[in-house]
């Protein structure tokens, strides 16, 4: 697994922690719960993790933070790239906009998976280097 190639695919720098590549994409809009702003670091960012599994392969897991309108298009992209959807659920009750969390999993070529994940992130209102 090549960190520099993953950074290039995602268009920004991820981090390595104990061999796990981590990258996140905060939502572009402000998220509030009961009128209080919830910062991206408090669980309102899409989080993606890569654990090397040998050669160029990696197991990936994480969750997309989505509005209801984004769920189907993100799931379609994930499935198209052989990334399994593990769960779809909410974490909060009164946040605005209402968010759903789509958890995913796969184990395959890291660059192939990164390209699929990047395409899925592009279907969201997340902050991307190319969009902002």
UniProtKB/TrEMBL annotation:
One Pfam family in the UniProt entry: DUF1529
Protein name, entry field: DUF1259 domain-containing protein
Species per Swiss-Prot/TrEMBL record: Siminovitchia thermophila
